[in-house]
Amino acid sequence: MKAAVQKSPISPDCAFEVKFLKAPHFDPNWHFHSEYQLFIVLKGTGTRFIGDHVTPFQPGHLVFTGPNIPHLWQSDHEYFEGDKTLWTEGIVVYFQEDLLGKEFLQKKESWQLRQLFIRSQRGMEISGAANQQASALMKRLLHTTDFESVLTLLQLLHVLSHTSEYRLLASGGYTNQLKAGDTERMNKVHAYVMKNFREKITLDEVAAIANMTSSSFSRYFKTHANKTFSDFLTEIRIGHSCKLLAARKMDISQVCYESGFQTLSNFNRQFKAITQYSPLAYRKKYADTML
């Protein structure tokens, strides 16, 4: 896999960049950059990584991330298997903090925008009416030009800076300690885990992927992911089980083993620890939201 590099995705002659993405899968590389980023999933499912945050994603999920916070939208395994009926779509917007000049954010009129930028350092998932408004504005950005596009982006930031319909993603103590070489190593680990999490994965296996001893890898992973590898693997498995429970095509014991857990009792315990629900209660809650 390619190592992540901090290159600007914004053309030198543009104030910001907006792109419509359509591909068999989203970029599978763990990376970070100096720009603020807005990203909405229009089509596709998978697992989202923002700093030390891990959760499934689906169409409609909208996230705002600040500069240099590592992120990855890892499409589900089936998107890499060549099925031409499966593909992903999304809209991404990049802009720099000095979009309106270096002094603008210091003015009193920019107070709420400054607060938004501070919140974005942990990544923000936007929901509710704010999600609908922001989504519509992002789609409009694809078709506007010149100063009208700048006004549309400002309107979008206005919506985000005034809403309370969001949740912060990375933990409060998270800081990015990755370098380009680290991201290449972490990409290898992520790719291996996402491909094999349904099977038993040992620490020795993953340490070998990273070309490290088990003890060195344990320390390395905890430093860069802000959690143990075991906790990370459990979060991946629980995220997958949430999607299976929502699909309602398997009973709970099938979901347990299909998600990589060896015993039903451990699955139930880990599921409740992470989601605050039992698997059965989660399935019922999800069904109720669909009514």
UniProtKB/TrEMBL annotation:
Matches recorded under SMART domains: HTH_ARAC
UniProt entry tagged with the keyword Cell inner membrane: no
Annotated keywords: DNA-binding, Transcription, Transcription regulation
Keyword Transport found: no
Domain HTH araC/xylS-type: 187-285
Domain of life: Bacteria
PROSITE patterns with a match to the protein in the record: HTH_ARAC_FAMILY_1 (PS00041), HTH_ARAC_FAMILY_2 (PS01124)
UniProt cross-references to InterPro entries, sorted A to Z: Cupin_2, Homeodomain-like_sf, HTH_AraC, HTH_AraC-typ_CS, RmlC-like_jellyroll, RmlC_Cupin_sf
UniProt xrefs under Pfam families: Cupin_2, HTH_18
PANTHER family from the UniProt entry: ARAC-FAMILY TRANSCRIPTIONAL REGULATOR, TRANSCRIPTIONAL REGULATOR MTLR
Designated name of the protein: AraC family transcriptional regulator
Annotated organism of origin: Chitinophaga defluvii
